[in-house]
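Structural prep section.
Before we set up the soaks we want a predicted structure of the protein with FE2/S2 (inorganic) cluster in place, mainly to decide which crystallisation condition to try first. Input record follows.
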Amino acid sequence: MKLEEFKNFDLDYNVCECFDVTLGELLEAIEEGYNSIEALMDRTDAGTACGLCRSVEEDKDGDRELHLEEILKFSKEN
Ligand code: FES
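Run finished without errors. Recording the tokens verbatim:
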């Protein structure tokens, strides 16, 4: 994914379907200093059930469009 594609997601986009965690909530947590996948999982519960929203590697069938890994990467580039 490229930064331009990332920017097309709305803040209310549901990144983690298991726990209904939105992009906005995750970006807020990153701003608060939860800036690793593990820290985001602890803070928001995102990624702690099926795990598909954690990274592209863990989402082999491409079920999720956006993953914690990419959000962390692009939030640092922004
Ligand atoms: S979609 Fe996030 S843990 Fe299942």
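Observations: The chain has a mean pLDDT of 96.
Flagged for discussion at group meeting.
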